[in-house]
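Researcher: Please predict.
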Amino acid sequence: MTRKKKVLMGVLTATGVASLVVCGIYLLSRNTARVSIARAFDDVRFKDLRSLDLSSRQDLPDTLWFNEKTVWPKASRMPSGRSPKILLSEGMNPGLGVRELHRQGITGKGVSVAILDLPMYLDHPEFRGKVVAYYDTGCGSQESSMHGPSVTSLLVGTNCGTAPDAHVYYAAKPGGSVDAMYDAKALDWVVEQNSRLPAGEKIRIVSVSAIPSGPGAMRTKNTNMWDEACARAESAGIMVLDGTRTSRGFAGPCWYDPNDPENIAKCTPGYRGPPMKVSEWSERSERSECVLAPCAPRTIAEEYEKGEFSYHYCGTGGLSFSIPYGAGVLAMGWQVNPRLTPDEIKRLLFESAYVRPDGAKIINPQEFIRMVKKASAAREGPQNRAHPD
């Protein structure tokens, strides 16, 4: 009998009114299934591609969703260039100069963040020991998911994250629920945890890869409870970054050139693959509604069965992946200058963004940190700085 496993899926791909491509629980066979055709941006995780001849499909592999269980054709039937194994490794890089900041010691160290997402195990090597508190809002038998490990690895992952040394407060919500009560309950738990922390350890930002209220909301019940919980969090000095069309939803998607991920000028607004929606996100960003952060191509952590650690590569991605990327960049900023208020650090994020010819604003981690340092020096004042003899 074929063994099955529960996989909680859902990648936020907000378009004009945000939508969720897949949400809920479906059964994914643990046994690899043979496929007879592979198209750009297909999901081939746990699939057997050995019968295919991909030797002339040079541009195909880096568009796919695949994992370490994907079975590939033999080398003579694969395109030349980077192998899937190399793509998996390269996709761990956040790009845009983030790893250079890490080499300088700017890693989000000492900064507390929170994540509200689907349930997950806490022992994956990408984030083992980084979740200091975990709260289950009512997930029942759901123990892990695709989405939880994904967003956590993109924020604090040792290899994949923008802020690998940040501390995480994690609240798990049930997959497939349309009740924003769970989102509000999760956020209120974060506020409660924050109230117990000393001044230097307060939770700075909550990463929420969901749209609990407003246009395109993924919830149809108690959506007002989310907005009320956000007001309580913000009154406590906690920034909330979600996918709503409000001041909280200030991250948008873009994708970088897989051949040149450090080159910010090559970032493209919107989603990689259909539907692209480039103009829409360019226009929203030009109006300073959002700063665009890379959502693809990326490699993320996965653990569907406890102790079975793996990774999967996403040739395309959604807003779900841009939100933790942006939250991690902000965490790096707070490490450098912990005195910045949410409004101040958000302003610096926008002011430091790279502006494309079409007006779209792309997150610029290195320039952001430069401006954070400058703001720190200005606040300190010349009278408090050391002077040469």
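Model: The chain has two domains: 4-90, 98-376.
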